[in-house]
Write a structure and sequence with these properties.
Blueprint lengths: L11 E8 L6 H9 L8 E7 L4 E8 L3 H10 L3 E7 L2 H8 L4
Antiparallel strand pairs: 1-3, 1-4, 2-3
Length: about 100
Protein backbone atom coordinates (compact mmCIF):
# COMPACT_ATOMS: atom_id res chain seq x y z
CA UNK A 1 0.00 0.00 0.00
CA UNK A 2 1.35 3.43 -0.93
CA UNK A 3 2.07 6.00 1.73
CA UNK A 4 -0.31 8.99 1.89
CA UNK A 5 1.15 12.19 0.58
CA UNK A 6 1.40 15.15 2.93
CA UNK A 7 -1.51 16.92 1.23
CA UNK A 8 -3.83 13.94 1.77
CA UNK A 9 -3.03 13.37 5.44
CA UNK A 10 -5.28 14.86 8.13
CA UNK A 11 -4.48 18.44 9.08
CA UNK A 12 -3.90 19.36 12.72
CA UNK A 13 -3.69 22.44 14.89
CA UNK A 14 -1.40 22.80 17.86
CA UNK A 15 -2.91 24.81 20.71
CA UNK A 16 -0.72 26.37 23.39
CA UNK A 17 -2.51 26.89 26.68
CA UNK A 18 -1.82 28.15 30.18
CA UNK A 19 -3.25 26.83 33.44
CA UNK A 20 -3.33 29.32 36.32
CA UNK A 21 -1.67 26.90 38.78
CA UNK A 22 1.17 24.38 38.85
CA UNK A 23 0.11 20.90 37.77
CA UNK A 24 2.14 18.04 39.22
CA UNK A 25 1.54 15.42 36.53
CA UNK A 26 0.35 14.93 32.97
CA UNK A 27 -2.47 12.72 34.25
CA UNK A 28 -3.94 15.57 36.31
CA UNK A 29 -3.84 17.96 33.35
CA UNK A 30 -5.37 15.31 31.06
CA UNK A 31 -8.16 14.80 33.60
CA UNK A 32 -8.86 18.56 33.75
CA UNK A 33 -9.03 18.78 29.96
CA UNK A 34 -10.93 15.54 29.28
CA UNK A 35 -14.22 16.83 30.68
CA UNK A 36 -14.29 19.76 28.27
CA UNK A 37 -12.99 17.84 25.25
CA UNK A 38 -15.66 15.12 25.06
CA UNK A 39 -16.22 14.17 21.42
CA UNK A 40 -13.02 15.85 20.20
CA UNK A 41 -9.91 13.81 19.48
CA UNK A 42 -6.95 15.45 21.25
CA UNK A 43 -3.53 14.60 22.64
CA UNK A 44 -1.32 16.34 25.20
CA UNK A 45 2.20 16.77 23.83
CA UNK A 46 4.23 19.17 25.98
CA UNK A 47 3.76 20.34 29.55
CA UNK A 48 6.04 22.69 31.47
CA UNK A 49 5.67 24.24 34.91
CA UNK A 50 6.56 27.89 35.34
CA UNK A 51 6.76 29.73 38.67
CA UNK A 52 3.00 29.79 39.36
CA UNK A 53 1.46 28.41 36.15
CA UNK A 54 1.65 25.46 33.78
CA UNK A 55 2.11 25.73 30.01
CA UNK A 56 0.94 22.93 27.72
CA UNK A 57 0.56 22.08 24.04
CA UNK A 58 -2.21 19.88 22.69
CA UNK A 59 -2.86 18.52 19.20
CA UNK A 60 -6.35 18.86 17.69
CA UNK A 61 -7.74 17.96 14.23
CA UNK A 62 -8.09 21.11 12.12
CA UNK A 63 -11.84 20.75 11.68
CA UNK A 64 -12.35 20.74 15.49
CA UNK A 65 -9.93 23.56 16.33
CA UNK A 66 -12.44 26.42 16.79
CA UNK A 67 -14.76 24.31 18.95
CA UNK A 68 -11.78 23.05 20.97
CA UNK A 69 -10.54 26.60 21.66
CA UNK A 70 -13.99 27.63 22.89
CA UNK A 71 -14.20 24.60 25.16
CA UNK A 72 -10.67 25.08 26.54
CA UNK A 73 -11.39 28.72 27.36
CA UNK A 74 -14.59 27.68 29.16
CA UNK A 75 -12.58 25.60 31.67
CA UNK A 76 -11.97 27.66 34.80
CA UNK A 77 -8.32 28.62 35.15
CA UNK A 78 -7.32 27.52 31.63
CA UNK A 79 -6.77 29.90 28.71
CA UNK A 80 -5.49 29.40 25.16
CA UNK A 81 -2.41 31.46 24.35
CA UNK A 82 -1.57 30.58 20.74
CA UNK A 83 -2.40 28.20 17.89
CA UNK A 84 -0.55 27.11 14.78
CA UNK A 85 -0.28 24.33 12.24
CA UNK A 86 3.33 23.81 13.37
CA UNK A 87 4.30 22.67 16.86
CA UNK A 88 7.67 24.41 16.52
CA UNK A 89 5.97 27.81 16.33
CA UNK A 90 3.78 27.13 19.36
CA UNK A 91 6.84 26.00 21.37
CA UNK A 92 8.70 29.19 20.39
CA UNK A 93 5.77 31.42 21.34
CA UNK A 94 5.35 29.75 24.74
CA UNK A 95 9.08 29.52 25.38
CA UNK A 96 9.10 25.72 25.68
CA UNK A 97 12.34 23.97 24.71
CA UNK A 98 12.07 20.55 23.06
Amino acid sequence: MAKLTKAKRGKNRWIGLEVDRKIDSREILEEIMSGAMIGIEWRLFDMKNKALTTLAIIKIPLEDSEEAKMRINSVEGVVTKTTSGKIRLVRERLGIKK
